[in-house]
Design a protein that fits this description.
Blueprint: E1 3-7, E2 10-12, E3 18-25, E4 32-39, E5 46-51, E6 57-59, E7 67-72, E8 77-82, E9 91-99, E10 113-114, E11 118-122
Parallel strand pairs: 2-11
Antiparallel strand pairs: 1-3, 3-8, 4-5, 4-9, 5-6, 7-8, 9-10, 9-11
Length: 124
């Protein structure tokens, strides 16, 4: 059974930094896409950053230059380093993945497995 567990969220002041972690388990395939999505209150969920096939990496335009996604394949974990945080980054951040080939990692409807999310609150 695939499980994704996020951690690292919390309150932070504007301009601050946080590092989110996502630990995946319950699968053995090396072919998968995985990434981060977020949903702010009253807004639709959106892709933030993700790893696709063949070294593909996606960043939403709103986070380019501020967020960095990384991974540790041995630990089946991904991370999201978030710098220069803004109030508009406030959201619940979810880790999601799809095992197999063919899915675009930034397409939330293609993701089969989701974590429960971790809340990031950026405010004074």
């Amino acid at each position: 059974q695939v499980q994704l567990v996020e951690s690292g969220g919390g309150p932070v002041q504007p301009g601050g930094s946080l590092r989110l972690s996502c630990a995946a388990s319950g699968f053995s395939s090396d072919e998968y896409v995985i990434g981060w999505f977020r949903q702010a209150p009253g807004k639709e969920r959106e892709a933030v950053s993700c790893f696709g096939h063949g070294g593909y990496t996606f960043y939403a335009q709103s986070v380019k230059g501020r967020f960095t996604i990384s991974r540790d394949n041995a630990k089946k974990s991904i991370y999201l380093q978030m710098n220069s945080l803004k109030p508009e980054d406030t959201a619940t951040y979810y880790c999601a993945m799809m095992i197999g080939v063919g899915a675009w990692c930034a397409n939330e409807y293609a993701m089969a497995y989701w974590g429960k999310g971790t809340l990031v609150t950026v405010s004074l």
